[in-house]
Automatic annotation (TrEMBL):
Residue ranges of every copy of the Pyrroline-5-carboxylate reductase catalytic N-terminal domain listed in the record: 28-93
Species per Swiss-Prot/TrEMBL record: Bradyrhizobium commune
SUPFAM superfamilies: NAD(P)-binding Rossmann-fold domains
Protein's name according to its UniProt entry: NAD(P)-binding domain-containing protein
InterPro entries in the cross-refs: NAD(P)-bd_dom_sf (IPR036291), P5C_Rdtase_cat_N (IPR028939)
UniProt-listed Pfam families: F420_oxidored
Record lineage: Bacteria, Pseudomonadati, Pseudomonadota, Alphaproteobacteria, Hyphomicrobiales
């Protein structure tokens, strides 16, 4: 899972983590601050969840992306192409402005799944992209 989010109560990400735990699945979570910053969350989630680098998390059979819209391109740089693996894109076209709120991003003619699909990491030709 790439992008654990600044908010510990990010519901989609949290639902995915809890479902993985109930199903007995192991998962690697990552963020831009590095594995050490996830120590508390990993301890809370249990032994089947480990912290890793974004590259490690993006190498899993199923990858959930949950990063800020403005960070999508930067966060996907250097990650392995998915090569037929499942990519769940939980990134929404919303810009967060501290102490002001959040605002929709004008995508023009693109649909919300296209920005990730256009990056080498999430290439539709190389993965099964699920937009949630």
């Amino acid at each position: 899972m790439c992008g654990t989010g600044l908010e510990q109560n990010c519901s989609g990400r949290r639902d995915f983590e809890e479902s993985a735990l109930r199903g007995g699945l192991g998962a690697t979570i990552a963020n831009s601050r590095g594995p050490e910053s996830l120590r508390g969350l990993v301890a809370e989630l249990g032994p089947s969840i480990k912290a890793g680098t974004a590259r490690e998390a993006a190498s899993a059979d199923i990858v959930l992306t949950a990063v800020r819209w403005v960070d999508l391109e930067r966060a996907s740089q250097g990650l392995p192409v998915c090569n037929g693996r499942i990519v769940i894109d939980a990134t929404n076209p919303v810009e967060f402005i501290e102490r002001v709120g959040h605002f929709p991003v004008d995508l023009g003619v693109l649909n919300v799944g296209e920005p990730l699909a256009s990056l080498p990491f999430g290439s539709l030709a190389a993965s099964n992209l699920v937009k949630i």
